[in-house]
Design a protein that fits this description.
By secondary structure, this protein is an all-alpha fold. It has 4 helices and no strands. It has a domain of 69 residues. Helix 1 runs antiparallel to helix 4 and helix 2 packs antiparallel against helix 4.
Length: 107
């Protein structure tokens, strides 16, 4: 069974996941205006318990999303690094074994 992994492509994908993490803040900012409009029409929402709970929940979801994307990106990059290290170690060991055998014809 042949297994191939383009380590750089995987590492780049992991870096891309980490790069997506701050976009959670952008999503949070996109709902600020509609929330502000709703709050202007209903003052109790913005200053009341429901508004505080909603804002806290949104902040928690956004922070969780950012944390998860960063964590997943770190895992992918770490896996690529591990595969690259194992590949290098295997090459080194096989090279050492190969050098023990005589090269060329023997009788």
């Amino acid at each position: 069974m042949t297994v191939h992994m383009d380590v750089e492509a995987v590492r780049t994908g992991g870096i891309g996941l980490r790069g997506l993490a701050p976009n959670g803040q952008a999503a949070s900012r996109r709902v600020e205006r509609p929330a502000s409009t709703a709050a202007d029409r209903n003052r109790g929402f913005a200053t009341g318990e429901a508004g505080r709970r909603w804002q806290a929940a949104l902040a928690a979801v956004t922070a969780g999303l950012e944390h998860r994307l960063t964590w997943q990106g770190d895992q992918v990059v770490g896996s690529a690094d591990d595969v690259e290290a194992v590949d290098q170690e295997a090459r080194t060991r096989f090279g050492g074994i190969q050098s023990r055998f005589a090269t060329g014809p023997t009788r």
